[in-house]
Automatic annotation (TrEMBL):
GO molecular function terms noted in the UniProt entry: catalytic activity
InterPro entries, alphabetized: Histidine_triad_CS, Histidine_triad_HIT, HIT-like, HIT-like_sf
Protein name in the entry: Histidine triad (HIT) family protein
Originating organism: Pseudoalteromonas denitrificans DSM 6059
Motif (Histidine triad motif): 99-103
The HIT domain, residue ranges: 6-115
TM ranges: none
Amino acid sequence: MSKETLFTKIINREISADIVYEDEHTLAFKDINPQAPYHVLIIPKKPIATINDIVKEDRELIGQLYCVAAELAKTNGFADTGYRVVMNCNEDGGQTVYHIHLHMLAGQEMGWPPYTNKMKA
Ligand code: AMP
């Protein structure tokens, strides 16, 4: 079961955010602690806690998150140069907010692999 997180408060405009896209089922806003020149979070309005909580009925909704990323890439000029989208899951995945969100990072060349010194032995 999903608990309300601060992202629900952003959806409900109880907390302010720099919103860059909204439709009936999704919202995208600038990350408060950007890890790239352009870093937005694309979220479903439905509060799904983690990737593990996605059910078959959510397939279209999850696909829509990627459609929003592609649209933002086009409108912001990143479609051809490239960008990264990533969704973290649970502690080892680096998830801190338990309302699924697609990170979209752009505006610089991305490194790979995406982890640094936090790798476990
Ligand atoms: P994750 O660690 O994958 O769960 O990502 C959570 C992201 O939410 C982090 O990149 C945070 O910087 C971002 N974040 C936390 N609070 C806010 C907020 N109030 N507005 C925008 N982004 C936020």
